[in-house]
Amino acid sequence: KGKGPQGKRITLKMAKNSIRVNFSGRRRLDLSKMGITTFPKCILELADVEELDLSRNMLKKIPNTIEKFQNLLWLDLHSNQLDELPKAIGTLQNLTFLNICNNKLTTESLPDELNLLKNLKTLNLGLNCLESIPTTLGALRELVDLGLFDNALTTIPKSVKNLPKIERMNVKRNPLRELEKPEEEADTIKRIESLYLVEEKDLCSSCLKMCKGERDELHRLEDMTPNSSKELSFPLLLTPNSTAKDNQEEWRVR
Known about the structure:
Shape: elongated
Region (Disordered): 226-254
CATH topology of the domain at 27-170: Leucine-rich repeat, LRR (right-handed beta-alpha superhelix)
Keywords: Leucine-rich repeat, Repeat
Radius of gyration: 37 Å
Distance between the termini: 124 Å
Protein name: LRC18 protein
Largest sheet: 8 strands, mixed
Number of helices: 5
CATH architecture of the domain at 27-170: Alpha-Beta Horseshoe
């Protein structure tokens, strides 16, 4: 017997009572928030439903028998404890919506067969442990909405970024290098942010030596800079308005 939590046992009767018909006319088998720890085998009897919701449980594994649900258009497995996906998920060719966020999936645990879901429009891989995204996901040409938030991604493959129909791609809270701000260029001019005035007697010998060195350097720079305070002399130029002063009377007469 396993030592882990047994979870709630789902019977076929319970499952049948959990089927609802939504506004679009699809039948949804809703077993969310049921405390399920293992995939209920009994629901294979209801494999003709169009939507299956097993979200917010404690599932660690989805068996390959998921391939029985060939009519599935919508599959929600978010908020479980899944650390892998079955290869058989690639057989669900009619899927348009797949939510597997908030699990324990890694890049290695994503099966290559995921790229066989050619009709997929929404794929949510957020809140997992992904360090990279397989370039093969670029085969999902119908994808419109892709969730990659809260992972450990450093890059997004061009094949995924350039998907022809993609409209939304949530990559928030990933250490993406392309989103990092470029380092500011080093400022060659040292700018003073704080100025503290002290007497020499209050400084230790090393600080005093450093201050004197900086003072000498400042004086050296001052000697190299032209002093604008000195009166400028232009001996070859006429004093401003001197000609005007000599000819004022002549101009008045005219």
